[in-house]
Amino acid sequence: MTNFNSSVWHALWLMGPITLLIYCAAYKVFYHDSYFFDPKHGKPEEGDFAQHATRYQDLAKLAITISSAVIAFLISTLSSAKQPITSFVQKIEITSPIVVGFFGFTVASLIAFMLAQTHFYEEYCHSHRHDSYKRWKYVLCISLGWSGLLSFILGFGWLATNIFNSTY
User: Fold this and answer.
1) E strands of the chain, at which residues?
2) How crowded is the C-beta side of 132, counted as CA atoms within 13 Å?
């Protein structure tokens, strides 16, 4: 019987349904047919979405960078381990597959979030009636962003829990 830590796919099997759950919950909560990307289209005194998009995408870029660095650190640690293997390296070796899965999902989800948000915003800006940002698009961006963030948190939590667990 394999340990739950033993595969990248275990993280994906966990994050796939969570992403779908976030999508379904958001779809139920956000019930309008279309949304204004730029607040100024709803109320002229409001501003543009571009400054908010920059902030959201900068946070996504930070999480992507840190996630990629953790994956590189884990691979580097495992590939440069010398015999005899220390208990620290052994703990990393045991937990690395699922942690790489969590951080890989973070990278994929947040890149998809940034691409979707950028594409939908461009489409919105070029539509004459500013009604192209439909409910499913809004919910898709929300679910990709939040599931990427959740996977990021789970990756660090899983790694810390397993490294500092003294039963290995």
Assistant:
1) none
2) 13
